[in-house]
Amino acid sequence: MIRNLVNFALRNRLLIMAVALLLFVWGAISFHNLPVDAYPDVADNYVNIITQWPGHSAEDIEKQITVPTEIQMAGLPDMKNLRSFSLAGISSLIMNFNDESDNNWNRERVLERLSMVTLPAGLVPQLQTDWSPAGQIYWYTVDSKNPNFDVMEQKSLEDWTLEKQFKSVPGIVDVASFGGLTKEYQIRLDPDKLVSYGLSIAQIEQQLANNNTNAGGSFIVAGAQQINVQAVGLFANVQQIENTVVKTQNGTALRIKDIAIVEQGPKIRLGQISKTYRAENGKLIDNPDVVEGALLLQKGADADPALKGVEAKVTELNGIDAQPSEPGGLFHRATPAVPAKRGLLPPGLKVVPFLDRSDLIHLTTHTVLHNLTEGIILVVIILMLFLGNVRGAIIVALTIPFALLFASICLSLRHIPANLLSLGALDFGMVIDGAVVMIESAI
Questions:
Q1: pLDDT value of residue 141
Q2: pLDDT digits (tens, 9 = 90+) for 412-432
Q3: Which of left, alpha, beta for 395 (phi over 0: left; psi -120 to 50: alpha)?
Q4: Under 8 Å between Cβ of 34 and 417
Q5: Per-residue pLDDT reduced to its tens digit, 188-229
Q6: Is the pLDDT of residue 271 over 70?
Q7: What percent of the chain has pLDDT over 90?
Q8: What does the pLDDT read at residue 324?
């Protein structure tokens, strides 16, 4: 069979050369378009359901949330296994599916089953975003030199501005935030005054909920125009909460400020992030309380274009600092000064990255390509010395790029990205082993 194949190739040299050229061009295009990630994505297709019920024990969570949800999720198509755990205040279910299944299809089936689960009133299960465990591609901190933005204001900026901006980048599915103080309105009730006025905490909560809402109305006609009517009641500051009427007693309005102290303060924090950075003079400075964020890549997405979009978004947020002009030399034109460009963030605030996957990808890809080039050159030299035939050595060496390009075609057809571990583990000896035997026999 091999003899017939070799004879056919020798009799149809132009056809074989045309096929080889076609494979070379196809492989070069596939290799150029092949996404390269830092690590292989070894995670299963999974869907995670998280339900929070603050203040309840793990036993209540298991009986009333976890078990009913498990019963409805049992028997999903392509599901390999289902794991769950119940802790105080939270329930989590993780369903692993076959690698051949479509994760978007899996999430749709889970949502269909989730609508049939009977849970206690007020509980809303949530699906965790579909990011891979190897998808933490960009980490940053919020640097503030503006005295008006303390750690609490930085956390509010992170929650309401930065997360929205970064989620708009294609490929970024979620932003995980750490550190800082979360701002909230706090009402500290006086128990003695509650008893004296005959009030309960449930009544106070109900009155606050009733007053913290906007109401829509109809419209009034003014000449040739109609004016829509709306009652605006959402709380905007502490004073509006203080002036909320709880009840009327003996013709006098009893307000929140008469029975409680209202102020703006932080939620109870469960952790803290610190950072050490090097100043311009080389001195190490500790910042004991910073706000940090991690960008999560969607499972199956290409990291390189997502990182380029993130870097463009960071430039848009931070703006461009002014750069002085450079004087021109004898044969060079002077470089004009670059004016400062205001970013979306307030003055004095910047997004400072400290882990960028693109640096790892670019540096490692350069190292891998450098090693591949050196390896091919060394293989050709060794083959020339041992085979004693220049033409045979060149033919054997050509199997290396052809094998890599053919592998790129197969990866592209299967939509499998390359990664730095597989590229860095290439063994030229195994690639050319069969070609060396055949050429040596022919020679």
A1: 94
A2: 888 788 877 777 777 777 788
A3: alpha
A4: yes
A5: 999 999 999 889 999 999 999 988 988 888 889 988 899 999
A6: yes
A7: 44
A8: 62
The backbone torsions φ and ψ at residue 119, rounded to the nearest 5 degrees and listed phi first, read -120, 165
Residue 362, exposed/middle/buried by CB under 10 A (0-12, 13-18, 19+)? middle
Helix pair angle (13-33, 2-11), 10° resolution: 100
Kindly write down the DSSP assignment for every residue of 159-224, as one continuous string: IIIIHHHHHTSTTEEEEEEESS--EEEEEEE-HHHHHHHT--HHHHHHHHHHHS--EEEEEEEETT
Residue 275 in contact with residue 126, Cβ under 8 Å? Answer: no
38: left (phi over 0), alpha (psi -120 to 50) or beta: alpha
Q: Which residues, at least 6 apart from 88, have a Cβ–Cβ distance to it below 8 Å?
A: 56, 57, 58, 61
Q: Which of 138, 427, 187 is nearest to 311 (CA)?
A: 138
Task: Please report where in the chains the tokens 């090693």 appear, as a residue.
Answer: 371
Phi and psi at residue 215, in whole multiples of 5°?
-120, 135
Cβ atoms of 257 and 246 within 8 Å: the answer is no
* CA-based R_g, the chain, Å: 32
Percent pLDDT > 70 in the chain is 95
DSSP 237: S
- Distance, CA of 112 to CA of 424 (rounded, Å): 44
Which amino acid, one-letter code, is at 143? D
Dump pLDDT digits (tens) for 46-100: 999 999 999 899 999 999 999 999 999 998 999 999 999 999 999 999 999 998 8
Tokens of 44: 């299963």
Other C-beta atoms closer than 10 Å to the C-beta of 137 total 27
Sheet containing strand 45-52, edge to edge, reads 79-87, 90-97, 45-52, 126-127
User: Do residues 162 and 175 touch, judged by C-beta distance below 8 A?
Assistant: yes
Token duo for residue 204: 């106070």
| Cα–Cα dist 276/278, whole Å | 7
pLDDT average, residue stretch 282-310: 90
Instruction: Tell which residue, 48, 93, 89, has the closest CA to residue 68.
Output: 93
pTM: predicted TM-score of the whole model, two decimal places: 0.79
